[in-house]
Amino acid sequence: MPDQIGEGGSIATPPASQGRPAHFSVPDLCQARSLGVIVLVCQLLVLVLLFAGEPGWTRLALLSLYVQWIGLCSAGLLCLLRGHLLRYSLATGALAAYVLVLLVTLVIGLAADQIMATLMLRETPGIQWQSLAQQLAIAAIIAGMVLRYFYVQQRLREQEQAELQARIQSLQSRIRPHFLFNSMNIIASLIAVDPDNAERVVEDLAALFRASLNEAGHQVSLAEELDLCERYLRIEQLRLGDRLRIHWSVAPGLERVRLPLLTLQPLVENAIYHGVQPRPDGGDVRLSTRASDERLEIRIENPLPQAPDAEAQGNRMAIANIRSRLQALYGDRARLETSTEDGTFITRLLLPLQGG
Q1: For residue range 310-326, what is the model confidence (pLDDT) as tens digits?
Q2: Count of CB atoms situated within 10 Å of the CB of 267
Q3: pTM of this structure
Q4: Is residue 169 helix, strand or coil?
Q5: Among positive and negative, which fits the CA dihedral 269, 273, 274, 277?
Q6: Is 250 helix (H, G, I), strand (E, B) or coil?
Q7: How is the chain split into domains, by residue range?
Q8: DSSP, residue by residue, 73-88
Q9: What is the homologous superfamily of the domain 175-352 according to CATH?
Q10: By three-state DSSP, how is residue 18 classified?
């Protein structure tokens, strides 16, 4: 039996199952987007405090310095302790994060009062407890709102990831019923006359099914993906015979580049189903790979069907499904382009280079 498809990474980790207790999910506050939200919220708070008292450029500068210090120091501390906070339950983790923000506010408030009083009065004053209490009350309200915002955003991202996983799995696991039917007919016809070849077809078909049942977003090397294509082509070669002519041109050195499982096989299947099968004389399918501008470029060519209107709708649906899967996995970093040239349908796939 052939070796099982090699293990690879997945693009996302599904959220915890519903039966498990919820854990506190603190976002990565070291990211530029999260820091931008914190800076914006802090500056809005500064404007509110400024207009609540006596406005002035000096007061604006001092308030901005003070509030931004609290916001950025709190974000840095939560980012530093993020790994520890993730181990706690939802209530414990949220309370710990909340207390940390208040402690940062208290420490910076005490330091700011001492520094400002020393610079302006030239002496060490007592602690202004009423002022600190007001600062802590404001920090408690704002911290609660910001932590709640990040918590909701994290839950929404987890839900989107779960939906994305389901969508990718649906697109990945499609195996054409007619291909399965034809493969079973081939096996049945070969059992009596060529049992060894029939066994090989069963192994190839099993490998294709095993791949389709794999985890959504599963990463494999280009060599493993090309092996799946060869298994599929061996089955189709038995069905189409001399009508199917395959030409490979794989650039050396790209064997370890990683890509999502079942990325090429559906494109090759699409080329045969829509380009070669409808033609009485068959046709040539050409597959080539090369590295271009830090991307893996894969080009598949097949003849246009003699009756393009009859197959165009199915062809568009297949390309749209593959393009949707790539968009879900890579976003704008991957492209699937199609064009026609001199009676040839050209599929050009661009993926970011990922070494194994």
Answers
A1: 445 545 666 777 787 77
A2: 20
A3: 0.52
A4: helix
A5: positive
A6: strand
A7: 32-171, 175-352
A8: HHHHHHHHTHHHHTTS
A9: Histidine kinase-like ATPase, C-terminal domain (3.30.565.10)
A10: coil
